[in-house]
Amino acid sequence: MSNNPIILHHYPQSPVSEKVRVVLGLKALSWKSVQIPRLPPKPNLMPLTGGYRLTPVMQIGADIYCDTKCIIAELERRFPDPTLFAGAAGAMTWGLGQWTDGPLFQDVVCVCLVEMSPDMPPEFLADRGPLYFGPDFSLADIKAKYHECLANVRSQFGWLDETLKGRDYLLGDAPGLADALAYYLVWFLRDRMAEGDQFLHQFRHLEDWEQRIKAIGHGQQADMSDLDALDIARNASPQTPEQGDSGDPQGLNIGDRVTIEPVSGGPQVKGILHFLSANEIAVTYENQQVGQICIHFPRLGYRVGQGSGD
Ligand SMILES: N[C@@H](CCC(=O)N[C@@H](CS)C(=O)NCC(=O)O)C(=O)O
Q1: Which has fewest Cβ within 10 Å: 143, 240, 248, 307?
Q2: Count of CB atoms within 10 A of residue 222's CB?
Q3: Confidence tier at 308 by pLDDT (50, 70, 90)
């Protein structure tokens, strides 16, 4: 395995990145932090991601991991000890993310966006509104849903609170993926909601747990410039072996030209299929600035098309 560092491309305010920062802390890892812009264009990130624009992105040499599902799975593969799957739920813990990153995230983001809206630059709202609520987004519509969403958050944070009665972490005695999946939403709400402290104070066990997760920290981080990260990619070669999947439901084959895009919308990434499994797809991609790299995505939540997409 290469000696290239773990590089996280992110920005401090990003809640979804907080999920990964907590995982880096749980595994006590050393990593480099590259701060990226909160809004496109992201000119020193795009050569690495082939156009994928969401935050965070992890880089190890010339291998690039997009989306927290893919990033966390790769961290668990490379650094299995301590495991993120200590509880009896095992791999089903990923399913928890389908709730926390899905309907729960939607309720929390509605509350946070409304809370942030008075001070939000118009270009930020114009980007994030449609990103999270679709092309027909209107601030008036989500303002009208604010109290309903807050009531939804109260029910669901209440489930977490009740679960944490009498145990230190969501799935038992050891912290793991389930905690990271839930914690970043509590962190997001506390930071963005004007009366977040007051709202969260009703969840006594949740607040105690929040302090325990916070105390774990983010591992050892050191800043790195985006240009240094590009240099690392240029001087490295992808380390991912070629791997096909004879059981692939879409009949994809190594060497196919494919397009990959988030189901939630966003630019298509085009590349040559290099690695395929039930949970992951990776393509090779050539770029003048960084040479050949390998870009990895989760299968779940991403649409894969055959052909160059032109
Ligand atoms: N499914 C993605 C969601 C990522 C996401 O929505 N991230 C937010 C930041 S918290 C984002 O990309 N916002 C737009 C941006 O940073 O340009 C993941 O798990 O990584």
Answers
A1: 307
A2: 9
A3: confident
Residue 19's φ and ψ, nearest 5 degrees, are -55, -45
Pairing outcome for strands 302-306 and 280-287 = unpaired
Q: What CA–CA distance (Å, rounded) separates 220 from 25? A: 8
Provide mean pLDDT across the span 190-208: 98
The DSSP secondary structure of 210-266, one letter per residue, reads: HHHHHHH---EEEE--HHHHHHHHHH----PPPB--TT-TT---TT-EEEEEETT--
pLDDT above 60: residue 253: yes
Write down the pLDDT at residue 309.
Answer: 74
Check residue 1 and give its pLDDT.
45
With a Cβ cut-off of 6 Å, ligand 1 is lined by: 14-16, 38, 53-55, 67-68, 131
Can you give the residue ranges of every domain in the chain? 90-198
Residue 40 Cα: closest atom of ligand 1: 17
Please tell me whether residue 298 adopts helix, strand or coil conformation. strand
Can you give the pLDDT at residue 129? 97
Q: What is the DSSP letter of 88?
A: T
Q: What is the pLDDT of residues 137-178, one digit of tens each?
A: 999 999 999 999 999 999 999 999 999 999 999 999 999 999
The residue written with tokens 């939540």 in the block is 301
Pocket test for ligand 1, best of 44, 55, 96, 191 (most atoms within 8 A of CB): 55
CA of 51 to the centre of ligand 1 (A): 14
Q: Given the CA of residue 39, which atom of ligand 1 is nearest to it?
A: 17
Mention the CATH class of domain 90-198. Answer: mainly alpha
Instruction: Using a pLDDT cut of 90, give the percent of the chain over it.
Output: 97
Residue 182 in tokens = 């839930």
